[in-house]
């Protein structure tokens, strides 16, 4: 029973990887995505993946505050149609300044979140590749060394007085 579990996990991971690669291929073959990636902005974001991921997190996080601001603008415009014109300018200016502050804060939060997400992705992918590597399943080796073994000759030049 215990020997079948790593094989089923490995098979499930391979099936998940196959589905994910098909999804990514269908996304990358979309004509609009291809046109965007050929543009200068797409090429710049392709060469700077951390910036692209931060921008994606910022856009996702800022959708709610921008939606609330647009709702306030629509409601104050409707109120202006009823005759409260002075209040409209005050509400839109205060709402705009608060939206600016919220978006600046979300920029810093999205930068921190994308950094943590990328770091956790690197750690989890390293652990998964260590735990479920094909060489480990064939050798039944439970230890996984992330760093290569260093010889004592590597340290000879460090501590000379």
UniProtKB/TrEMBL annotation:
<keyword id="KW-0472">Membrane</keyword>
<keyword id="KW-0812">Transmembrane</keyword>
<keyword id="KW-1133">Transmembrane helix</keyword>
<protein>
    <submittedName>
        <fullName>Lipid droplet assembly factor 1</fullName>
    </submittedName>
</protein>
<keyword id="KW-0551">Lipid droplet</keyword>
<feature type="transmembrane region" description="Helical">
    <location>
        <begin position="50"/>
        <end position="74"/>
    </location>
</feature>
<comment type="similarity">
    <text>Belongs to the LDAF1 family.</text>
</comment>
<dbReference type="GO" id="GO:0005811">
    <property type="term" value="C:lipid droplet"/>
</dbReference>
<dbReference type="Pfam" id="PF16015">
    <property type="entry name" value="Promethin"/>
</dbReference>
<feature type="transmembrane region" description="Helical">
    <location>
        <begin position="81"/>
        <end position="109"/>
    </location>
</feature>
<keyword id="KW-0256">Endoplasmic reticulum</keyword>
<dbReference type="InterPro" id="IPR029709">
    <property type="entry name" value="LDAF1"/>
</dbReference>
<feature type="transmembrane region" description="Helical">
    <location>
        <begin position="115"/>
        <end position="133"/>
    </location>
</feature>
<dbReference type="GO" id="GO:0005789">
    <property type="term" value="C:endoplasmic reticulum membrane"/>
</dbReference>
């Amino acid at each position: 029973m215990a020997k079948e579990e790593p094989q089923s996990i490995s098979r499930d991971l391979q099936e998940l990887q196959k589905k994910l690669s098909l999804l990514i291929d269908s996304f990358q073959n979309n004509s609009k995505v291809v046109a965007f990636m050929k543009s200068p902005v797409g090429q710049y974001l392709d060469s700077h993946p951390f910036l692209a991921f931060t921008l994606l997190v910022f856009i996702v996080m800022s959708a709610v505050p921008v939606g609330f601001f647009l709702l306030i603008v629509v409601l104050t415009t409707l109120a202006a149609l009823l005759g409260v014109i002075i209040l409209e300018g005050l509400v839109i200016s205060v709402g705009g300044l608060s939206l600016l502050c919220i978006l600046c804060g979300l920029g810093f939060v999205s930068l921190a979140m994308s950094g943590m997400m990328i770091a956790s992705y690197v750690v989890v992918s390293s652990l998964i590749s260590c735990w479920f590597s094909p060489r480990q399943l064939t050798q039944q080796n439970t230890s996984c060394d992330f760093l290569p073994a260093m010889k004592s000759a590597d340290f000879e030049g460090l501590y000379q007085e």
